[in-house]
Design goal:
This protein is an all-beta fold. It is built from 1 helix and 12 strands, in the order ββββββββββαββ. A 4-stranded antiparallel β-sheet has the order 5-12-7-10. The chain has a 4-stranded antiparallel β-sheet with strand order 6-11-8-9. The chain is globular and about 50 Å long.
């Protein structure tokens, strides 16, 4: 088979408060991306992320982690998403932040598969639940 994954990125900005005479507008919509999945497999977990410790998002059940979708299910607090070293799992190296209700989709680095880094998260103020979906590449 082919094109087992469909990803439709889109970003729109319409901010009239920037200037009423010339509102700031932007549209980014490259259309649907059709992506091949070379092997069957996925993870789909609800994870409680504390503000006092880094929570690892394990990909060990996958041979090659591909696309990941992370959704902050909390109604008030944000969570930082990043990686941690497999040898120093207490330090988060953040690459993104999800405010309450926000989601992020990205392709995983091959460093996750190599055992160098682990996908991880840390809440800011109070514990949050996130949904983490990771597809086999």
């Amino acid at each position: 088979m082919a094109n087992e994954i469909t990803f439709t990125p889109s970003l729109n900005l319409n901010n009239a408060s920037v200037s009423s005479a010339s509102p700031d507008k932007l549209t980014f919509n490259p259309g649907a991306l059709q992506i091949d999945q070379s092997a069957l497999g996925r993870l789909d977990n609800i994870i409680t992320v504390q503000s006092t410790a880094v929570a690892q998002i394990s990909t060990t059940d996958l041979t090659t982690p591909g696309y990941a979708a992370i959704h902050n299910l909390d109604a008030a607090n944000y969570v930082e998403i990043g990686v941690t070293s497999t040898t120093g799992a207490t330090v988060l190296i953040p690459f993104g932040k999800l405010k309450f209700g926000e989601a992020k989709i990205f392709r995983c680095s091959s460093s996750l598969n190599a055992g160098t880094y682990v996908l991880a998260a840390k809440a800011n103020t109070a514990a949050v639940k996130i949904r983490a979906i990771i597809l086999e590449d």
